[in-house]
Amino acid sequence: MELVTDDWNAIGKGVKGTRKAPPGQRIFREINYQGRAFSKSCLMAGAKAEKFTAVRQSVRSPFSLNPSPFFSLSESHRPKHECGVFAVYGHKDAPLLNYYGLFALQHRGQESAGIAASNGEGETFRLHKGMGLVSQVFAQENLESLKGTRAIGHVRYSTTGSSTLLNSQPLVVDTARGQIAVAHNGNLVNAAALRAELEMRGSIFQTTVDSEIILHLLAQPDDTMGGPIGSFRKLEGAFSVVVMGEKEIIGVRDPSGLRPLSLGKLGDGWVLSSETCAFDLIGASFVRDIKPGEVVVINDQGVRSEFPFTEIREAFCIFEYVYFARPDSRLRGVTVSKARVNMGRELARLHPVEADVVIPVPDSGIYAALGFAEELGIPYDPAFVRNHYIGRTFIQPTQLIRDFNVRVKLNLIGDAVKGKRVVVVDDSVVRGTTAKARVVNLREAGAKEVHLRISCPPHKHACYYGIDFPDPQKLIANQYTHQEICDYLGADSIGYLDIDGMVRATGLKKNSFCLACFTGEYPITFDSAFDKLIMERRKGSAQLLPDQSAQPALFTPNA
Ligand code: SF4
């Protein structure tokens, strides 16, 4: 028999196999990636086996969208931001300013938010953090309880360690060096080894985030490593960190400068932020970016710099320009929106197409689409309308809800595309689920042709530096050819920007970027066992007594 399916795994691989589900069931729901869900449901059904060959499903509808092999029920279909950090020193409203700073950085993490505040030496740090958006975590009374002239804050998307309150930041401890609070953006690629080493020396960890390692290194009472600042040399990977001690606030950027961190000035006080858009919101002026490998110490004497790392090899994450950062931020002197417009222009020159309208996938596709339209002189129309008021949902995604979710964030103005040759510009295709849904939307609305243009090269490799696509098998471009992807998405054509065009769009040097998720050339070696839950997995190997046989008898029955 022929199995009519829209299942990518089945079609792309020309799957032949055994169909065991009961007759009458909708076939495209019965097969899932690598047959796992299929086998499970079939065993439960206990029906007879039947031979099949997978062919393409002929009728397309968003409600027949089969889960992509690159999209599990619990996963988002977009890359996730990593985290955002913010700090204020020397201002009477430091916690409140921090709160607004976190609002501006909300796009970098929506799982949890927190602020630690202090009035200085001898006063107990005050901390409030919780799960959810900044607006959900902080009520008026929470902010009023956070008194102090200095504060650090954090918004989190979990890239190492689960999304739990325990793992939310800032992390605050009391040590021989006084109280210390830490907020971290990035991933430490040597986290497991460092944690094991610290535990061997007696450290007790409370969380499963790599950021706690920074806290433990800072807290070490001996100065053999060069004190707290020298201890940063132990860290490998991506880290833009703000630290609050009792006398100072410290900002650190890893020697590759993978994640951004900038210094601003507000009155007599100082501000550190993951992105400059937060300075605009609180009225701070931009001073400069923290350099790769730089440690800035802000205290009552002002700001001083140290460079404790022996080797600096700049490798800034280029995906910050493509997708992560806000368009109104300036990264390394380049406004993100401008870089995106340039990417659109480069893309238009590389993959021109005759079309009637260019439409963006909001939000990060907007500027690239503008550049694309301007370059080719094609009308631009923001025909996808984003619903900005959704927030997080905790509803378990059934098939119906998953299909609904595809539409709930973006709705299409059908009149803008009916009967037209449409170019749709997006920032990336990671698993393919979103792009496919957009193409289906456009076809249903009567678009005559749909040409997909992507403002970065195909993602073929994992990111170990703080972005949530660690499994290459879930990256559509890693698994399938250009034509197979185009067929799966149902587009008339697909064109990606190339590496040189993407770099040219920033106006910066190619060798100053990390391009690893496109090229597979990693600027920093990493633990091959690394993934988001590496710390959780360690738990299974724990034992209180090293060798059971060596235990003394605690009591002897009948003795
Ligand atoms: S691998 Fe990609 S996403 Fe990760 S840091 Fe490098 S450029 Fe950025």
Précis, in short:
The chain contains 19 helices and 26 strands. It has 559 residues and is α+β, with helices and mostly antiparallel strands. The strands form seven sheets. A seven-stranded antiparallel β-sheet has the order 6-5-7-4-13-12-14. A six-stranded antiparallel β-sheet has the order 8-9-10-11-15-16, covered by helices on one side.
Notes on the protein architecture:
There is one protein chain. The protein is an alpha+beta fold. It has 3 domains: 2-59, no CATH class; 83-314, Aminohydrolase, N-terminal nucleophile (Ntn) domain (Glutamine Phosphoribosylpyrophosphate, subunit 1, domain 1, 4-Layer Sandwich), CATH 3.60.20.10; 331-511, Rossmann fold (3-Layer(aba) Sandwich), CATH 3.40.50. The chain is 27% helix and 22% strand. It has 19 helices and 26 strands. The strands form 7 sheets. It has a 7-stranded antiparallel beta sheet with strand order 6-5-7-4-13-12-14. Strands 8-9-10-11-15-16 form a 6-stranded antiparallel beta sheet, covered by helices on one side. Strands 20-23-24-25 form a 4-stranded parallel beta sheet, with helices on both faces. The radius of gyration is 26 Å and the shape is globular. The N and C termini lie far apart (74 Å).
